[in-house]
Amino acid sequence: MSRVALKGRLGRKLRALLTAIAIVLGVAMVSGTYVLTDTIKGAFDTLFAQSYKNADAVVTGKVAFTNNQGNGVEAPSFPESLLGRVRALPDVAFAAGEVTDARTHLIGRDGKAIVTHGAPALAFNVDPSDQRFNPLTLTSGSWPRGPGLIAIDKATADKEHYHVGDTIRVEARGPVRPFLISGIAKYGSVNIGSATFAVFDLATAQVVLDKPGKLDVIRVQSKSGVPNAKLLAEIQPLLPPTAQVRSASAQAKEDLKEVGFVGILQKILLVFAAIALFVGSFVIANTLSITIAQRTREFATLRTLGATRRQVLGSIFVEGLIVGVLASVVGLFTGLLLAKGLNALFVAAGIDLPRRGTVFATRTIVVALLVGIVVTLLASLRPALRATRVPPIAAVREGAVLPPSRFARYRLAAALVVLAAGIAVVSYGVLGSGIALRPRLLLLGGGTLLLFIGVSLNTAGLVPPLASTLGWPGTKIGGAAGKLARENAMRNPSRTASTAAALMIGLALVTFVAVLGQGLRSSFEDAVNKLFVADYALTSTDTFTPLTVSAERALRRAPGVAAVSGIRAGSGKVLGKVDNITAVEPNMDKVVRLTWKAGSPAVPAQLGSSGVFVNDDFAKRHHLVLGSPVALETPGANVIDLRVTGIFANPKGGSPFGALTISSALFDANYPRPENEMAFVNTAGGVTAQNTTALESQLDAFPDAKIQTRNEFKTSFEKPIKMLLSLLYVLLGLSVIISLFGIVNTLVLTVFERTRELGMLRAVGMTRRQVRRMIRHESVVTALIGAALGIVVGIFLALLVTIALSNQGFVFAVPYGDLFVFVIAAIIAGMLAAILPARRAARLNVLEALQYE
Description:
Distance between the termini: 23 Å
Radius of gyration: 33 Å
Helix content: 40-55%
């Protein structure tokens, strides 16, 4: 029977190929995800390991907490005098100090700050006389020695055409400064992505980064034979409260925690891979069901010759195993190409992460092959069981069909139960209260799978009315071919439903993303329209990176300026939780309009050294009223006692304010090197070309600063939302592509099945063009059924999530334009899927088709 299965596969190469493509793409996504994320993680491992090369101990600033959900926490610097005391320790062979910064922008040839798309714009120093701790390698020139000199990264030099001896401007927490390029360097063998770096000597770095007499890091090398524990014990008593010491390996591991997003990225991509495989399983099951139905007489002949049901079942499993193994192996190595494609996609979206040589781990091979083979075998299970029900008598009967299962009478009830269970589980996962994150995600994932399966099981009953309605335009456009296409789609509702179900899943998820995205944009625009009463906003070039306060102060000197008010941003621990903290200036009410539930517009001017205002959601959650005491712990472990002086109504789209908002004077006194999240400006005469020019002229010394009107501000903030949606569409596009192969599979197999029918149609006068048109219309009808069901399911899921997140500012908004595009895309996809089957059907020889069996 194994030989029979093998010959069966070899005899149907096209069918095997079309079946395998779904698994190839799904497995490639799994493989590509692991290869890409392992490569990125390996690059970060190398970066941090090289950063502390030759060091045995590392002294860094100590923070009271970290914040990975919003504004980052900058570790405090410590006195440079500590370096001398460390060097004097008996077991220290060498020690070197460093100051660092992650927001020092290099300025390009066009006069604008080089955008890093969220990656750090690094600045630090090296010791030109001793390179033992230096992870960089010079590609040309020399290390900077003295003021006015700088070394820059090779990627920036190549992109902006800078060479040794050129002048480059640098913006670091203040106005730009010119520097002479003394050297160009790279970070070992690692591509640092979109990050940039500027290198100075120590004295210059301390001036440029505004850290006179301070250090951020001390690397220590011990004398030969000194245990690490002993070295750390000697250093510890010397440290001030704002510093800590770790071994070099421990510090590298600590730094790696800051790039935990790589693990999150891996999980997100694996979710899309799972979606692709789930869609692929529908394609495989449907394809095998059709082929088994077409091979009824073949299986009956085997039964007549003595084959048992177990042997027939085994032969189908062997066929599935052959396809699964071959497709998984191809998908595994296709994943290497897909990893490059995913990386190119992220780079196009502005996410250029560090990377080095490709990492192809054993885990990747095992998981990818195992997943592909298991999914294929599971998808083969139901068709294989159907094959065992072929009675031997079918071998002598033309047109024999499979007998119904003894459970067939329960099919409708079971389908309704699965659908109801899916709706119930998803609803509970979204709307249930008091559920932890992990169980909630499991409920959402499992419930969504049940919902998709339930919809697909019930689709057969919806196919006749849907095909009749959606196929009606084809009868007017395509004439007789259009009518036949509609009837063909209605002839076998189960087959059409199974084919449309794969496309339904992909389009449901695309619709879900589109509706949520539209709701997010709508709520944000509504919030901006309510809050933004200023004439202009001042932000960084990328809108999201904090901006030096000096840029705000420069605007005050512009002619015609009536008010300038900045919003500071930082992190703090409030009521036992780390959260975002903001600060405002006394004239905030002139540029931002808040609806006060407690307090008045005078609150910002009355904050002083102990006042704070919060939004109503935060106040309700923590039972705060006017006069309630609140303690704020800063990253430097200072505790500030505050009292609530105002509570404002939080707009649905959110606001620029954090959990607590204090006065800018109090913020500046407790947060070193304060920065603005944004600032707002009022001018005499409002928004005019003259006022815009006057403001921009004051920002010549701040290339990373950007003046925007309200509409420009909204567009800038929505740009990353649109970019994220586009990225999600592309990732979900893989499942849509797989579903299109499902349509191709079905049409190709039905062409085989209807060979004699097509021959009869040709014999009675149907032209080849009409045959192609019939197959094309049938494909479009199937695609439209999938689109209609997918859009409805996607809107339902988005509605549930919107209701659950309504307290977070989400509103329900349907993007009718996007949905129209999806329908048009489904029609085009259906036409593309029909190209191969239509050509094959049109090329059939009439006489051979009439005698085909």
